[in-house]
Amino acid sequence: MTSHHETDIALDPELMAYVDGRLEPAKIAALEARLAHDSDAREAVAKWRHFDNLLNSYGRQADELPHSLKIAALERELASKLKKQHWRAIMLGTGLRRIAAGLVLFVAGWGSHAAYTTGGNMLASASHPYFVAPTLAGHAAFKLAAYQGAEFDGDNITSALDWMSQKMQHKIESPKLERLGYRVESARLIEVDDRPVAVFYYRNAENERVTVSVTPKWTEHGNYALRVVDLDDGVMAYWSSDQLHYTVVANDNRGAITTLAAAVQQ
Amino acid sequence: MGLKSELHEHIGSLRRYALVLTRDPVAADDLVQETLVKAIAKAETFQRGSDLRPWLFRILHNTHISALRREKTRADAAPDLPEPIANDCQHTQLELKQVLSALDQLPEAQRNPIILIALREMSYAEAARSLDVPLGTFMSRLGRGREALRQIVQGVGRGKLSILKRKGDSA
């Protein structure tokens, strides 16, 4: 049976915080002065801390356990599920409903022209328009030095857009992927067949990259319906709007690429 | 920190918690596996932006409680104290056995707060969320549990340590 004083000790939040190293520094001196005159509290604190240390050391023995393949497999599966849930939550979010609706209209606008393709090395494919290949190449290598016209880091995107718009003779906007958790790292203006292509490189907190290109439509080039293409290590989408061609490449799944495409189109 | 690395870190924490709860490495990994299977099944209910660690610990905690209720008794609950021998390492082992044994005499409601905080994986608030109780309730259970643990260990310890002392004297 505990005494009144023991009950007080047990319910003293400052003693708890002190034992756990969570007491505000300003209060430590006062508490230690109190402990110097209260042998019951002093003994209790010492024992609690000692028991905690014993249990902590015991728990740490788990770090020495053999690697479990089953746990590792479940860990991967859970990560994948949580990631999908993340995208689903974004798609169902208030702000993105508008984008999703926009994507539906955008795809519906192209009607039966919309196509899905699977394939391997799309760089070698002649079935995609001219602005796709440099986006893929840039995504894969993160550089296109041979064709590179200019490069801007993520802090200078505003001036980059002004300059790119001038070069393209068309006002372009930075694709808004921040709400999807991506931050623009850099932007480049490259030239393909004497045509300017603006390429934006993004990355999220999980180190996943997305590459987006934007280029004006030229009279000799037609419109491209939304097309989603499976790559060896990701997925790509490209399409045309009234005045621009777009390409998005990501190391992600089809559900994510349509969300990204919708955000870019927005 | 990305989701994958965050999850990997949490699974290390889950294994530590599971080991202290089960006292058996195989049972601990079984518990973690069962927790992950349930987490996969419940992944759609997890809100990104909320804390992943308390969510996982809550699943593990509930899984463990369910298992205990199914089994009714825990095979390892009975104290199995080694013969005390006067050296520091084994003295620590003896103390650990006493503390684990004393923990088993506490109600679950007091035992789990003590373990969670001893592992130093979470704040008080996170630990309270893991156990699905208000912070005030958690703090009360932690304090009462610690004090009850001390009282039990002191009761056991006086007897065992006196044996230790006598054996040490005769050596």
Question: Could you explain the architecture of this structure?
Answer:
The complex is a heterodimer of chains A (266) and B (171). Chain A has 266 residues and is α+β, with helices and mostly antiparallel strands. Chain A folds into two domains: 4-63; 75-265, 2-Layer Sandwich (Phosphorylase Kinase, domain 1). Helix content of chain A is 47%, strand content 22%. Chain A has an eight-stranded mixed β-sheet, with helices on both faces. In chain A, helix 2 packs across helix 4 (39-60) and helix 6 packs across helix 9. The longest helix of chain A has 24 residues, at 69-92. Chain A is elongated, with a radius of gyration of 29 Å. Chain A starts with a helix and ends with a helix. The model of chain A is unreliable at 94-126 and 141-148 (pLDDT under 50). By secondary structure, chain B is an all-alpha fold. Chain B has two domains: 1-77, Rna Polymerase Sigma Factor, Chain: A (Orthogonal Bundle), CATH 1.10.1740; 78-171, Winged helix-like DNA-binding domain superfamily/Winged helix DNA-binding domain (Arc Repressor Mutant, subunit A, Orthogonal Bundle), CATH 1.10.10. Helix content of chain B is 75%, strand content 0%. Chain B contains seven helices and no strands. In chain B, helix 1 (3-22) packs parallel to helix 3 and helix 3 crosses helix 6 (124-130). The longest helix of chain B has 36 residues, at 135-170. Chain B is globular. Chain B starts with a helix and ends with a helix. At the A-B interface, helix 1, helix 2, helix 4 and helix 5 of A face helix 1, helix 2, helix 4, helix 5 and helix 7 of B.
